Recover the amino acids of this structure.
């Protein structure tokens, strides 16, 4: 009986965070990129904060991990044409970007 109680209490402690903070790299160039990247991030249910910095290409996120994952956010950003370290935009999505937004792909 004690083993069952310990097992359930251990599983309860593995809950996902309601306010997990992440910083990821997202490729882009300008203010239009900033708006597009942040809009894509906010389109994912569970994203509480998204702030992309042009100078270092870092996206600072706060997400509710009970509603979404970091991978969900990266997929949404890639769908609008911007590469992250883990998820790359398709060539088709990248080609849809405005001329000034065409960053150098790695």
């Amino acid at each position: 009986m004690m083993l069952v109680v310990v097992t359930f209490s251990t599983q309860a402690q593995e809950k996902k965070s309601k306010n997990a903070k992440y910083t990821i790299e997202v490729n882009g160039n300008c203010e239009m990129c900033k708006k597009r990247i942040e809009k894509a991030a906010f389109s994912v249910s569970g994203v509480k904060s998204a702030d992309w910095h042009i100078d270092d290409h870092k996206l600072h996120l706060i997400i509710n991990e009970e509603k979404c994952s970091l991978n969900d956010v990266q997929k949404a950003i890639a769908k609008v044409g911007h590469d992250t370290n883990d998820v790359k935009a398709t060539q088709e999505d990248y080609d849809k970007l405005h001329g000034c937004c065409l960053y150098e792909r790695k």
User: Anything to note?
Assistant: Residues 2-13 have pLDDT under 50 and may be disordered.
